[in-house]
Hints:
Layout: H1 2-9, E1 16-19, E2 28-33, H2 44-47, E3 51-57, H3 62-79, E4 84-92, E5 101-108, H4 114-125, E6 128-136, E7 141-150, E8 153-165, H5 187-197, H6 203-212, E9 225-229, H7 236-247, E10 250-253, H8 260-267, H9 271-292, E11 298-301, H10 304-315, E12 342-347, H11 350-360, H12 366-373, H13 375-387, E13 394-397, H14 402-417
Parallel strand pairs: 9-11, 9-12, 10-11, 12-13
Antiparallel strand pairs: 1-2, 1-4, 2-8, 3-5, 3-6, 4-5, 6-7, 7-8
Helix pairs in contact: 5-6, 5-9, 7-14, 9-10, 10-13, 12-13
The protein binds adenosine-5'-diphosphate (ADP) and deoxycytidine diphosphate.
Amino acid sequence: MARRILSRFGHWSSYVFAVEFDTKSDPIYFALEGKHSEGPQVFRNVLADERCYSLHVYSDDIIERAKFYGGLKNKLSKELPSECTLLEMSTFQPNVKDSVIKGYFLKDSSKSSATERVLGELLRNDPVYVCSYLCGGEDRQWSQHLWSNTEDGWVVGSEKYCVVPAEKPKHHPSTLNIINDDVFYSFEDAYKVLQQCGDIIPESKAVLELVDQRLESKEKTAFPVIVIEGLDATGKTTLTESLTEALGATLLRSPPQCLSPWRARFDTEPPLIRRAFYALGNYLTAGQIGQEARKAPVILDRYWHSTAAYAIATAVGGKLGNLPQAGSEVYGWPGDLLRPSLVLLLSLSPQERMRRLQVRGQDKTREEEELEANHLFRQKVEEAYQRIEGPACVTVDASPSPDQVLQQVLLLIREKCHL
Length: 419
Ligand SMILES: Nc1ncnc2c1ncn2[C@@H]1O[C@H](COP(=O)(O)OP(=O)(O)O)[C@@H](O)[C@H]1O
Ligand SMILES: Nc1ccn([C@H]2C[C@H](O)[C@@H](COP(=O)(O)OP(=O)(O)O)O2)c(=O)n1
């Protein structure tokens, strides 16, 4: 195991470690050096004299890696002493795509030996890589020690690396692995993920059977295809229904109705699998659009913008400024997915959206609850929506009455789609 990980890491010197102490500020970045080095001590203020450990999840199998990382936080929270604090950690090569190895950083202020026992068990049985951090010497320099498995159990390796501060990279580490971990830019990439899940998630097979029977969609449609996007409770259902009637159109949604039996199941899966499910939903809907847009205009309740914006906002940790910059390839449209004629984004103040959610009084999806709790996340979803291109969305003020919103949107459609 350790050898496999080390081959992936190459030599330590090209990697930087990022520990998220607080989602509102920058992570602490540090690197490792073979020899003792002078300079500011990265950890002095944040760690005091606590015992610290890091865990890196590694497996060549992307499904195993995603499933294990997804369950690890729960497992650790249950098994570790309550005096342990678990922080998100990533190890990466600065600004190098797909270089992130995810893990956790652990601060332990307990005096118990339980922590090391739990970590030793993980090292023995699971795809993880464990290190401890010690502070010693006259100048109290922090060093990292890699654990290894032996026949007599785990041991703290003799090799030590000095912990030194590293520069803040241009791209936040959470943006480096978005492509094909969180957002899929072709049918084939999303399909492969569900295929690989077949043995552990039997429902994937049923989804793939439906996907295999999907209808073809041509790039050009006879009638316009208009997508309505926005956060929950911004008025999408209300508007799509009235628009459909006003234009004599056909109403479709993504994910399509035929995927409903499996949606809740995939919502519990880690991002890799969950996002692949939604990506395939768009291709199924594209097949339906291809049929329906021969006969009448199509109104679509959510499509690719939702898939990409929620996925990017979930993947990118911390502040709004950590999102990939506008124009980044992550905001591009998949080359093989039918493009709509127009995408309208309903925009609402957080206060009015909250009021409508309360009036509606329905159960919210877990993610929508998170949106409520996490103002930063909501801002990131809205910003990502506005950065997606090919086509970009046109923002519509959704705060007037339902009829006023409808009239405003009909004007836009007449102007942009000549309907
Ligand atoms: N323009 C509007 N003004 C006031 N309330 C609205 C408006 N549009 C929708 N609503 C109400 O807000 C709630 C959420 O609307 P809905 O269409 O279900 O949103 P979504 O489909 O985006 O979740 C519903 O109770 C709906 O009646
Ligand atoms: N085309 C789509 C539609 C939804 N999603 C995902 C994005 C979010 O995780 C949820 C939001 O769905 P939710 O059930 O809140 O949406 P409704 O407003 O109820 O339609 O679904 C997606 O990825 N792709």
